[in-house]
């Protein structure tokens, strides 16, 4: 196994924002292993000015930026990358173009972890609008029988960090409903901007509460460890087949001169 640090990127798939970038950087500092180098990255605001991608319209528009970021990270030699949106936006598309780099995202990572801790988990989301798409995603991953339900708190992505006391109150109420009425034995916070609230909810309710940003980062890191130790790299056969380099070149697929990243914060291996 190489002694070089593991390299993991956490990609926030919206335009850069100093305050939000710092939140995710602090999360990485607190939770990464000493031998892991983490890059917290966001897309260029000049081209992707969204502060959230709650709507499929925004998802469709930002997918191009995600694909360019994934391609660049793979070329830079990253071991793994996490796409930081609970919709798992462009996850399958990104995996196709990621080469030997492993790609994960918050929903699939959180479901994997919650299912290892419990038989039934509930997902606390911001708005009812999100449920249909997220439910379809959870079912597609094979976790339908584990899902106790979705519980919304009436907050959009940009609302979670505005009033922490009110956010915590709403999350706790929804978590109590999921655990007591829905029979959830574990809870998942269904938005990466719900970051920082899981510990207090755990203390109050006595069930594991999965922070999706931490889950995505740690699953990416774990995948990187397995890649180094066991040689487990992504398949590029069958449904995972990537476009040929000749075709990508002929179509000038990634030849744009616009910047790929709007911001990058390096958290070095210690």
Polypeptide structure, described:
The chain is an alpha/beta fold. The chain has 2 domains: 6-105 and 214-267, Rossmann fold, CATH 3.40.50.12500; 107-212, Rossmann fold (3-Layer(aba) Sandwich). The protein is 41% helix and 17% strand. The protein has helices at 18-31, 56-75, 91-96, 106-117, 131-140, 164-180, 198-205, 212-230, 245-250, and strands at 6-15, 36-43, 80-83, 102-104, 121-125, 147-152, 186-189, 209-210, 263-267. The strands form 2 sheets. The chain has a 5-stranded mixed β-sheet with strand order 4-3-1-2-9, sandwiched between helices. A 4-stranded parallel β-sheet has the order 6-5-7-8, sandwiched between helices. The radius of gyration is 18 Å and the shape is globular. 44% of the residues are buried. The mean pLDDT is 97.
Write the topology of this structure:
Elements: E1 6-15, H1 18-31, E2 36-43, H2 56-75, E3 80-83, H3 91-96, E4 102-104, H4 106-117, E5 121-125, H5 131-140, E6 147-152, H6 164-180, E7 186-189, H7 198-205, E8 209-210, H8 212-230, H9 245-250, E9 263-267
Parallel strand pairs: 1-2, 1-3, 3-4, 5-6, 5-7, 7-8
Antiparallel strand pairs: 2-9
Helix pairs in contact: 1-8, 4-8, 6-7
């Amino acid at each position: 196994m190489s002694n070089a640090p593991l390299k993991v990127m956490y990609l926030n798939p919206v335009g850069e924002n100093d305050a939000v970038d710092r939140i995710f950087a602090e999360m990485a500092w607190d939770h990464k292993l000493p031998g892991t180098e983490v890059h917290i990255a966001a897309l260029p605001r000049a081209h992707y000015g969204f502060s959230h991608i709650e709507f499929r319209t925004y998802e469709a528009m930002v997918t191009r930026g995600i694909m360019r970021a994934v391609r660049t990270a793979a070329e830079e030699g990253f071991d793994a990358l996490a796409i930081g949106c609970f919709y798992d936006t462009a996850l399958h598309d990104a995996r196709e173009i990621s080469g030997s780099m492993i790609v994960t995202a918050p929903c699939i990572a959180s479901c994997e972890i919650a299912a290892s801790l419990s038989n039934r988990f509930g997902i606390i989301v911001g708005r009812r609008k999100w449920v249909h798409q997220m439910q379809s995603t959870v079912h597609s991953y094979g976790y339908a029988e584990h899902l106790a339900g979705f519980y919304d708190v009436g907050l959009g992505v940009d609302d979670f960090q505005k009033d922490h006391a009110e956010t915590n109150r709403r999350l706790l109420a929804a978590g109590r409903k999921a655990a007591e009425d829905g029979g959830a034995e574990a809870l998942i916070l269904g938005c990466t901007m719900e970051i920082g609230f899981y510990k207090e909810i755990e203390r109050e309710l006595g069930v594991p509460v999965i922070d999706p940003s931490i889950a995505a980062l740690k699953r990416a890191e774990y995948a990187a460890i397995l890649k180094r130790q066991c040689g487990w790299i992504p398949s590029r056969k069958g449904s995972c087949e990537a476009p040929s380099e000749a075709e990508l070149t002929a179509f000038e697929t990634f030849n744009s001169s616009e910047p790929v990243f709007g911001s990058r914060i390096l958290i070095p291996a210690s």
